[in-house]
Amino acid sequence: MLKRWRVWVDQLPQQKLIERRQARAFQAIVLGLFVIAVFGVISSVFIFLAFPATADSFKQLLMAMAAYSIMGIGSAIALHQVRHDALQRAAIIVSASIQLMLLIGYAVVGILRENSTYGFVFFTIPLIISALLNNRKVLIINAAISIAIVVTVGVLESAGILQPIDMIESFWVIFVTLTIGIISQALLVERFGSSLHMEIYNLLQREDEAQQLHNLLEQKVVERNQSLQQALDEIAQREHVLQQALDELQVSQTIVSQLNIPVIPVLPRVLIAPLIGEMAAAHAQSLKNDIFAAIERVYAHTIILDITGVSLIDQVVAETIIQIAKASHLLGTQTILVGLRPEVATALVNLNLQANMVKNYLTLEKAMQPLLQPHVRRAA
After folding, report:
1. Which of 54, 126, 134, 181 could form a disulfide with 95 if both were Cys (CB 3.0 to 4.6 A apart)?
2. CA torsion through residues 122, 126, 131, 136, sign
3. CA-CA distance, 41 to 164, in Å (whole number)?
4. Model pTM above 0.70
5. How far apart (Å, rounded) are the C-alpha atoms in residues 27 and 35?
6. How far apart are the C-alpha atoms of 185 and 195, rounded to whole Å?
């Protein structure tokens, strides 16, 4: 039975965590007020039966039963609203029922008597409920209504419009009333304090989790920055090495470009020019000038262009070979190509090199054999 009761109490419709906790605390307060109202009705009946029956005591009994019944009915309606996800409406209903209970009670017994002040503790119940739900508007309205009840009843009683009844002056009447008020206050303060403590605890816990997450994020940022800095250092080092290699390559290209291809006399009136590596336009012009100058100097009848060492035959190299061949032909000098490859031959044909202007051999040895025969015969 108790287990089912706990399950029923915990089954609240509120989805948000804060609203669910407020609803659980408010539900406990409403249930407590309902129990107190039932106890108030029963105790009022026993007090009436314990003292001599008079017209005023009967009126006091009816007033007490009506006041506690209003609080009990209001608590029951408020509980129904809490169970249907209407927390603010439930707070307004239970506050209004308590205000109405106080209005009826003080309208009957009066507010200017000394023994009527012990009921003032009930005025704080709507205020604590409003504070528990963090509703400033309802709190201000409840405070204004409480002040209005006291002022209105006091003014009407002073003017003689309200005629208070003679209350049963007994220790037990005061004891029961104060006990109900103190229990109500204790219930509200306990629920309010527990809810406040839980909120503060959760806030501190979230703050601690946020600080831990912040520290973890800072650590990850530091690690990422370190990794990024290491990567940047490696990239900078590689760029430095690459720049050094490029500088060395540029120096090498400069040195190579400054070197003239030698035009070597291998036999009387026979010259050989070995072409090596890549050839720029300026380098090609220098080569042509050197070859033409050597042909004119030794009256060469043959110039051998050894292109075996040329890594790339581009348009510059092909045009240089054609120009040397045509100019040499006009000067009466025969041009021999050594190391001619098929792609080179195709490029030369596409550039309109006439076949009778050059001879070609695969190797320098084969190119030299026809040139050496006249010298061999003379020696013989």
Report:
1. 126
2. negative
3. 21
4. no
5. 12
6. 15
